[in-house]
Write a structure and sequence with these properties.
With 295 residues, the chain is mainly α. The chain has helices at residues 9-26, 28-48, 50-55, 64-86, 93-119, 127-150, 164-184, 186-193, 201-224, 230-255, 268-287. Keywords: Membrane, Transmembrane, Transmembrane helix.
Length: 295
């Protein structure tokens, strides 16, 4: 354990300083598209190469729940990339600052989870986790934070009267509650959702990471009711539908896989299909509701 914590911080500090200078030089637009690119690449890696990736990060026997949560986090990243791409040309300044602040808050929550997993006494994380996952989260979060703090135009208009707002508010509440549950009560959820004979710190860590992604997404839904343009509001609901459908498909494939079928408890199936189905239905109905209008 002591050996894990003997870290040469100078290269890390140097990399962070160079990164900050580079971002300040290249500008906000570069930072925006860098975030989009990272979401695509990392999301694809987590979704398609989950076994290979997680084996470099942890020192436990990898099971189906580990792989599912890694892939689920990848789906969340790909969903966020879809959102960032579709609002890249938005004329509403509230949209881009909202996305960046959501990334900062989600990244900060993820860093707390990663730090706890890396340095607590029962840690089963590798040095690769520190130098790849943790450092990448630091740089990713820092890049968005720099431009959030430098922003002089915050937007934040009063809510425009829109039928979309009710669906966005509902999505915000549901997403935030799930995010808090995954982040604050991972062990309880694991005992309800899985039938594993033994849980380890990696299970709880991956649940917290997923919770941080949900809370980040909830911030966008909560703020989206202040967007001026209807298409920007709708794209958040479209994104929720795509993410949730992806998660349901992932769960069904995982559940009916012969090798991983016994990892999930019987009550978990109606929970996922029922609750997530209602959550998705709200976003779907909102996506096709009547166009927004102003007084």
């Amino acid at each position: 354990m002591v050996q894990k914590m003997e870290i040469n911080v100078m290269p890390v500090i140097g990399a962070v300083c160079c990164y900050c200078i580079l971002l300040l030089y290249l500008g906000k637009k570069f930072c925006y598209y860098l975030d989009f690119f990272l979401s695509i690449v990392i999301g694809t890696v987590l979704l398609t190469l989950a076994p290979q990736f997680i084996k470099t990060q942890v020192e436990v026997r990898v099971d189906g729940v580990h792989l599912f949560m890694v892939r689920a986090f990848g789906i969340m990243l790909l969903g966020s990339a879809y959102l960032w791409w579709n609002v890249r040309n938005s004329k509403d300044i509230t949209v881009h600052t909202t996305l960046m602040w959501a990334r900062v808050m989600g990244g900060a929550a993820a860093l707390l989870a990663q730090g706890f997993a890396q340095f607590n006494k029962a840690s089963r994380m590798t040095q690769e986790h520190l130098y790849i996952s943790v450092l990448l989260t630091v740089l990713w979060t820092l890049g968005n934070l720099i431009y959030c703090m430098r922003c002089t135009e915050w937007g934040g208009y009063m809510e425009t009267r829109s039928k979309l707002n009710n669906f966005l508010h509902t999505d915000f509440v549901i997403t935030l509650i799930f995010g808090i549950m995954f982040y604050a009560y991972p062990v309880w959820l694991l005992r309800v959702q899985t039938s594993l004979p033994r849980l380890n710190v990696v299970h709880a860590h991956l649940y917290r990471l997923f919770g941080s992604a949900l809370m980040s997404s909830a911030i966008i839904s909560g703020r989206a009711s202040n967007f001026l343009i209807a298409s920007d509001k709708r794209i958040q609901l479209y994104t929720r539908v795509l993410i949730n459908v992806g998660l349901i498909i992932l769960f069904l494939v995982t559940y009916f896989s012969t090798a991983k079928h016994n990892d999930w408890s019987v009550p978990n199936t109606p929970f996922v299909l029922g609750v997530v189905g209602v959550w998705t239905l709200n976003a779907f109905c909102g996506s096709y509701s009547l166009a927004y209008f102003k007084n």
